[in-house]
Amino acid sequence: MAVAMPTMKVRPAGDCVWEIPPSEKPGMRVPARIYASEMLLAQMDRGVFDQVTNVACLPGIVRAALCMPDGHWGYGFPIGGVAAFRADTGVISPGGIGFDINCGMRLIRTHLTEADVRPKLRELVDALFRAVPSGVGAHGFVRLTEVEFRQAMVEGAGWCVRHGYGWPEDLEHTEGGGCLPGADPAHVSARALERGLKQLGTLGSGNHYLEIQVVHPGAIHDPEVARTLGVDRPGQVFIMFHCGSRGFGHQIGTDYLRRFDQAMPRYGITVNDRELVCAPFRSPEGQAYFGAMTAAANTAFANRQVITHRVREIMASVFRRDPRELDLSVVYDVCHNTAKLERHVVDGEPQDLVVHRKGATRAFGPGAPDVPDAYRAVGQPVIIGGSMETGSALLVGTAHAMAETFGSTAHGAGRTMSRHQAKRRVHGARLIQEMEARGILVRAASTSGVAEEAGFAYKDLAAVVDVLHRLDISRKVVSLTPIGNIKG
Amino acid sequence: MGRYEVLEDVALADCALEVEGRDLNDLFETAAVALTELMVDPATVETSVERAIALSADKLDLLLYDWLSELIYRKDRDQEVFPQAYVRVSGNGPFRLEATVRGGIIDRAHTALRADPKAVTFHQFAVTAVDGGWRARIVIDI
User: Fold this and answer.
1) Residue A287 CB burial class (10 angstroms; 0-12, 13-18, ≥19)
2) Contacts of A195 (CB under 8 A, 6+ apart)
3) For A108, B42, B140, B141, which has the most beta carbons within 10 A of its beta carbon?
4) Residue B115: which of A136, A191, A246 has the nearest Cβ?
5) Residues paired with residue A62 on neighbouring β-strands, in sequence order
6) Which residues fall within 8 angstroms of residue A345, CB to CB, at 6 or more apart?
7) pLDDT at residue A173 is higher than 60
8) Residues A169, A312: contact at Cβ < 8 Å?
9) Annotated active-site residue in A356, A411, A420, A427
10) Does A189 contact B at CB distance below 8 Å?
11) B contact set with A (CB within 8 A)
C-alpha cells in the first residue's frame, strides 16, 4: 500500500519505515526515509515531506535523508531530521544543525522520592526559578571575561568543573565528555561573543525547561537496564533540563548562514530551501563553520554544567543536606542539534561522515565509542522530552541504530500545531492553574510561552517511543512524569 | 504603520510572519514592531533609550535579514527592546538603512515577557514588491 501525499508518493519499506524514492523530486540523490507508525505518519505536516526530500538533494549525502517519528515542520531540515555526508566530498549545512547549536538534555538523579519532595515542592520550584534565569533578556550569574569565555569554547563542561562548577564524574556522563574536538574560537565573531558572554547559566525560552520528575512504579519498562542507569527505587525523583548554547550559538548560526548564502554559489551548489545553504565540509567556509559550531556546542555543555551546579546548590539549600548525600549525579547529557564527525559503516566499508542531527539524538549502542564505562554493556542513555503535561522518557541506544540511522533516534514528541494556534486554544495562566490542580507546579517567565507548550500541542510521546522501540533504534527503559516545571 | 500577521500553518515550532508596508521604510518599521511584539508586550516597556542603527547590504532581502538580526542581537547583548522604529532605506544595490529606535531595558519586574527569538531564518524568506507597497515573509526561530 502506498500513501499518496499531495505531491509525492510515500511507500512502506518495512515495519514503521516509509520511503520517498528519488524519482519523486528532481535533484534527490538518495531516498528520503521516514520512521513512523501509520498514525504518526498521518499526523505529519506537509513540511516534513517537502523538507526531508530537500535534504536528500544535498551533495555528498549518504544512504538516505532520515526523519524520526517526532518529525515536524522545521526551517530547512525537518525537526527530527538526520543526514550524513561524506567528510571528503560532502557538505556541511548550518541549517541542518540549527541556530540553537547543541540544544540538548541533561538528566540528574536523586536519592529522593516523591514523598520527600512534595512537602517542599513549591519552595523548590520557586528557588530553582530564581536560581536558573529563564525567558527573554535573561543574564546568568557566572561572570566570565572574554578570555575565560574563549577557554570555555575549547574546554566545554571541563572548564566549569575546573572552576568549581561541577564534579569530575559529570564529564564522563556527558556526550563527548562535555567537550567536542575541533572548536576554534578564531572563527567566532565578536558579535557572537558579545551576545553570549552574559548568558552562561540561563535556560532560554520556548521549549526549554527544567523539570522535577518522578518515576512511578509502573513506569519502569526494563528494570535491569534501569538499575544500570541509576533508577533504583519507586517514586524516585529526577531533574531534567533542556537548553542549548543561547545567544552565542544563535549568533554563530546567523553569521554562518549569511556567509554560506554568499559562498555557496562559488561551489556550484544550489538548494531547494535557502535555509539549507551549505559548503563542502573540507572548504575554508566549511571548516570555519565547523570550528565555530563546535565552540558553540562546547559552551552549551558548559551552560548545562553551570545549571547543574545551581541545581545542586538549590537542592542542598532546600533539603538542608550536602549535595552528595542527595546523590545529584548526572545520569547523562545528550545533544539534539549538532554536526559531528563520526565513522560509520556504509556498504560494508567504514566511512568518515559528517552526521547532522537536527532535533535528533545520538543513540550509540552497547560497546560503541564514547559510551561511558558504566553504561558500556547497555548502550548510551537517550533522554527524550515529551510535553510538560505528559512527561519524558529515558531509553538506551542500540546496535541496530548504528546500522540503520547512523546511531540516531528521536529527541521529543514533535509538535502538532503552531505556537500561535496553541495560544489561541488556551490561556497560559489558566493552564498553569489546571496543571497545579493535577499536581504539576509551574513557574514561567512568560505565560504565553506556557500556552505555546501545552500538552495538546505535542504528539503522544508514548507513541513515538513505541516506534523507536519497535524499530530497535532505541529501547525504552523508564518513563518520567513531571511534578514541577520551570520555563522561560 | 503597515500590517503583519502570523502564518499559523507554517513552521510549527517557530514563528512565520507576513509583513506589509506601503513603502520600504514602512515595511522595515513594521517588521521591527512585529519582532518586538513577539518578544514583549510593548506597553510594558518604559521608553528610556534611543539608539541609532546604520546598516548596508548588497541585496534588499539581506538588508531586512541584517536589520532584524541586529535587533535580536541587541536584545541579548544589552537586554534592550524597541517598540518604536523610524527607518530610512536608500540605495538600489547596495542598499543602506539608517534607523532610530526607541525603547528600553527588559525589566523583569515590569515587562510582560513573550517569546525569545533566536534568529531570522532563510526558510521561505522573501521581500517582494506588491500592489500598494512591499511584502515580506519571515520565519523566526523561537
Assistant:
1) middle
2) A247, A248, A250, A251, B73, B76, B77
3) A108
4) A136
5) none
6) A351, A402, A403
7) yes
8) no
9) A411
10) no
11) 6, 8-16, 39-40, 62, 65-66, 69, 72-73, 75-77, 79, 81, 105-106, 108, 111-116, 118-123, 125, 139, 141-142
Task: State which CATH number among 3.90.1860.10, 3.30.420.10, 1.10.620.20, 3.40.50.720 fits the domain covering A104-487.
Answer: 3.90.1860.10
A420 has a chain B CB within 8 A of its CB:
yes
- Give the DSSP H or E segment for A240: strand A236-243
Q: Which distant-in-sequence residues (6+ apart) come within 8 Å of A408 by Cβ?
A: A66, A68, A82, A355, A357, A360, A361, A362, A363, A401, A473
Cell (9 digits) for A66: 532520515
Residues of chain A with CATH 3.90.1860.10: 104-487
Please, which contacts does A450-453 make with residues 24 or more away whose CB atoms are closer than 8 Å? A450/A388, A450/A487, A451/A422, A451/A423, A451/A425, A451/A426, A451/A427, A452/A206, A452/A419, A452/A422, A452/A423, A452/B115, A453/A206, A453/A207, A453/A209, A453/A387, A453/A388, A453/A422, A453/A487
In the beta sheet, which residues pair with residue A84?
A: A355
Alpha-carbon gap, residue B18 to B6, rounded angstroms: 6
For A433-465, write each residue's pLDDT tens digit.
999 999 999 999 998 899 999 999 998 999 999
CA distance A26 to A24: 7
Which structural domain range is residue B121 located in?
Answer: 3-141
Most confident region among A452-456, B17-21, B105-109, B112-116 by mean pLDDT: B17-21
A61 vs A303: CA distance, rounded Å: 32
Q: How far is CA A101 from the centre of its chain?
A: 9
Query: What does the mean pLDDT of chain B come to?
Result: 96
Taking 60 as the threshold, does the pLDDT of residue A1 lie above it? no
User: Is the preceding peptide bond at B94 cis, omega within 30 degrees of 0?
Assistant: yes
- Confidence class for position A2, pLDDT limits 50, 70, 90: very low
C-alpha distances out from residue A204 to A117, A137, A283, B116, B117, Å: 25, 9, 33, 7, 10
Neighbours of A420 (CB within 10 A): 18
CA distance B76 to A202: 12
pTM (2 d.p.): 0.97
**Burial zone of A11 (CB within 10 Å; 0-12 exposed, 13-18 middle, 19+ buried):** middle
| Cα–Cα dist A108/B52, whole Å | 46
Amino acid at site A212:
I
For residue A261, give the chain B residue with the closest CA. Answer: B122
CB contact under 8 Å between B123 and A258, yes or no, is no
Q: Which of A293, A420, A486 to mutate to test the interface with B (most CBs of B within 10 A)?
A: A420
Task: HSE, CB side, 13 Å, CA atoms: give it for residue B37.
Answer: 13
Cβ-count burial of B86 within 10 angstroms (0-12 exposed, 13-18 middle, 19+ buried)? middle
The answer to whether residue A411 is catalytic is: yes
Please give the residue of chain A at the shortest CA–CA distance from B117. Answer: A136
Length in residues, chain B: 142
Which pLDDT does position A3 carry in this prediction?
A: 42
Angle, helix B24-39 to helix B60-78, in steps of 10 degrees: 30
The ipTM, to two decimals, is 0.97
Grid coordinates of A453: 507548550
Give A-chain residues touching B10 at CB under 8 angstroms.
47, 73, 418
Cα dist. A196→A5, A204, A205, A302, A481 in Å?
A: 43, 12, 15, 12, 32
